[in-house]
Amino acid sequence: MSRKSIFPFMKNSTSTNSTDFRHILKQHLLQRVTRNPKYSQGAFARDLGLKSNRLSEILSGKQGISPQVALDLAKKLELNQSETEQFCHLVAARHGRSQALKDSSRSALASHNIPEKSQTRNFDTSILSKWYSIVILECIRITKQIAPIKWYASELGVSEAAVKLCLDNLRALGLFVKDDNGHIWADQLNIESPVPSANIKQFHLAAMDLAAKAIFSVDMSEREYQSMVIPMEAHRVTEFKEKLRNLVHEFADAADAQTRATSVYMLSAQMFPIIQLAQSSSTTRTNKIKEKLLKSPKPRTTKH
Q: Is the pLDDT of residue 278 over 90?
């Protein structure tokens, strides 16, 4: 199987207005988890001044919030004035104590072309640049099932909130679906896809960090490291980059052809310049002398 880009959703991705106050809360939680994978939903509840179980029920739709709580949350989320008004109107449109308050908020939302309910949602695709998102999706692709969130969190060393949000976004972006037999089919992420460059750099930094940790934590029988220093002619850099890329893809395709995989590995390859060679003036003079000696006629030998 050839590894191709599977980011068609990135081409037409546009920012849309949030149409559910819960979605706004989830987006802020996602942003914090993206910055710090160990950040949890419990930490988010603490920062919002809510009990953890109450926040969980709010996000799941089991509880609503009052207009006053909405205003307090907007301040703690540091929303600007227009964002605060939208957030509070979204809350009141659903959980206002009177029908008049609900109708008023719905009218305010309609005047800003923000429907109370909509099928259109905006997801933060930057979560896809996180190394654990790619690992989780690969696990789903191989096993054709989704493991418990606690297991992913424990095995990958990230918070359960990070895993849950990751799964929510992967599902929303259509990167895995369930068939009639209950099997889950997942796409393969390719970090060469047109993800913003900052996210690509973040992924590669994480890959190298994982590799550095594996030197000390993974037995030699389960890992392989090859590093060398090689000479390179400037005009052949592109050629050798292509050779390395093809080699990595060939390796990955051979591994992907296995039918009974029991583990997920990280394969990372880098090639970069260390030093630019510059000839010193003495070296240049020496080379010129050598050139003259090579060009000068050989002395004749005289026979006695």
A: no
